[in-house]
From TrEMBL:
It is a multi-pass membrane protein. It comes from the Bacteria. This is Energy-coupling factor transporter transmembrane protein EcfT. It is found in: Membrane. Keywords: Cell membrane, Membrane, Transmembrane, Transmembrane helix.
Length: 266
């Protein structure tokens, strides 16, 4: 269910990660994602794991909450692993009729699945420790140079912020609709895969209707408050770097450099 998505949710806290400038967390998240594609060896995998665990521990985010966000991507992880395992050529390790498993297929299935899982976890750390307002300010400030070539930076940042805000709201709405229909005799859990998919149709229709209604209410509220974009608008809490932000930048870039060195040497 959408309620299990941690992306877009904020976990209140007073940790060092929570206090970092949102621009630092955005850049560090991008660096971490890049490092996942640089990762090729077991040593790199261990370093990425230690880095992610350390950041999560410093942020004070419960491990159960982090793992909760993985519930909805297991199908995608399974599909990724399946196609890499059975359709990647290489030295054959197992053969049964037309089914073949190669060594490169096993390697790709494991590492591509790890990359996908760690990508979701790393992004979740950023959103769990950053309020949507700060995330919007960070994206807008970081992308401001693009305004010189006509890119609507404020509008892009606003749309992304609204999208992140809607994820937990839609999760709660889906949960309420499911409970209401279950109380009326609907069954979402029994039967095969096809039956479960058909059972979701009565859930998705009111969810889409509710989503459009929320979007329309938000648009009317913005128009009633004379919102006309970001031109000429000032910030109530302007962003500014502190010493800890520069240290965080240094740690992130050192981590990426170490990953690149491991990629070259191993």
């Amino acid at each position: 269910m959408l309620k299990d998505i941690t992306l877009g949710q904020y976990y209140p806290g007073n940790s060092l990660i929570h206090k970092l400038d949102p621009r630092v967390k955005l850049v560090s998240t991008i660096i971490y994602i890049v490092s996942l594609f640089v990762l090729q060896s077991l040593t790199g995998f261990l370093l990425a794991t230690v880095f992610l665990i350390a950041v999560t521990a410093i942020a004070g985010i419960p491990g159960k909450l982090m793992l909760k966000g993985l519930k909805l991507i297991w199908v995608l992880v399974g599909i990724t692993a399946f196609f890499n395992l059975f359709f990647t050529p290489g030295d054959i390790l197992f053969r049964w009729y037309f089914i073949k498993i190669a060594d490169q297929g096993v390697y790709n299935a494991v590492f591509f699945s790890i990359r996908l899982i760690y990508l979701v976890l790393g992004t979740s750390v950023m959103t769990l420790t950053t309020t949507p307002n700060k995330l919007t300010d960070g994206m807008e400030t970081g992308l401001r140079p693009l305004q010189k070539i006509g890119v609507p930076v404020h509008e892009i940042a606003m749309m992304m912020s609204i999208a992140l805000r809607f994820i937990p709201l839609l999760g709660d709405e889906a949960d309420r609709i499911k409970k209401a229909q279950t109380a009326r005799g609907a069954d979402f859990d029994s039967g095969g895969l096809l039956k479960k998919a058909k059972a979701l149709i009565p859930l998705l229709v009111p969810l889409f209707v509710s989503s459009f209604r929320r979007a329309e209410d938000l648009a009317l509220a913005m128009e009633a408050r004379c919102y006309h974009g970001g031109e000429g608008r000032t910030k109530m809490k302007p962003l500014h770097y502190e010493g800890r932000d520069y240290w965080a930048y240094a740690v992130a870039w050192i981590y990426l450099c170490v990953m690149i060195v491991l990629r070259v040497l191993l």
